Amino acid sequence: MINSKYKNNLNLIFDKLLKTYSYQGWWPFIDYDGVNPTKTGAISGYHPKDYDFPKNSNQKFEVIIGSILTQNTTWPSVEQALNNLNKLVDFDPLSILEFANNNEEPFKNAIRCVGFVNQKTEYLKNISNFYIDLKEDLDKEDEIPSRKDLLAVKGIGNETADSILLFAHKQKEFKVDSYTKRIFTYLGYIKENDSYMSIKNFFETNFSGDVNMFQEYHALIVEHAKRYYSKKPYGVNDKILNEFKI
DNA sequence: TTCCAGGCAATAC
DNA sequence: GTATTGCATGGA
Hints:
- GO terms for molecular function: 4 iron, 4 sulfur cluster binding; endonuclease activity; metal ion binding.
- The protein is mainly α.
- The protein has two domains: 4-25 and 173-244, Endonuclease Iii, domain 2 (Orthogonal Bundle); 57-168, Endonuclease III, domain 1.
- The chain is 54% helix and 0% strand.
- The protein has eleven helices and no strands.
- The protein has helices at 9-21, 57-69, 75-86, 93-102, 104-111, 117-138, 147-151, 158-168, 178-186, 196-206, 211-228.
- α1 packs across α11 (211-228), α2 (57-69) packs antiparallel against α8 and α4 packs across α5 (104-111).
- It binds a DNA duplex through α2, α3, α6, α8 and α11.
């Protein structure tokens, strides 16, 4: 898929992005008093160079909820929704499920700012049920679900599954999003219509880094793309990665 | 006003 | 398997 001449480029691009933007501190947490860097669209809760997250089961489920809420919307909206929700209910599967079932309108009003409220309410109930069952079946708080099982939950697609596995469970799964496609299509490494799994496989085969660097790479891609790949024509002002264009 | 945002599922070929 | 469309809201 990639000429051997460019074999190391995914690592070189990572190095360049890291040098340019430094450590991103994903995944952000609402109750974490982290730094507030001058990051595009960032508000708070980031923890650069500290990969020891999530620190407890509530934070883990916060990542899982956030992964669904952030589908096709902006992070500031998600942060608002999480703060709204946090005043109403604990971030654990059983509490979320019961609150959503018994207080539908307050629940929807809390997350309304992220859009797609009806769908996302259903999705959040589904994922809550999934983790309730997972814990009951395996009787282990910290059991890690399989990617296949996650994908069987209505509302969890490829990207959300990888987001949950990478940032909540710290599994070495590369997360591909629309920004990833834009940057690496523009640079010439992938094609516009390549499938999610083929792009994921491309990164997992050609980028050598541990799970923390998998997290870092995705965050750096988002940061870079927000600056140069949000307005059409995408990438034309990207001087930072221009040297890696093929 | 139009376009875009850290997608997904259902449907149609 | 791949392409298209509806889903909701807020901000630039």
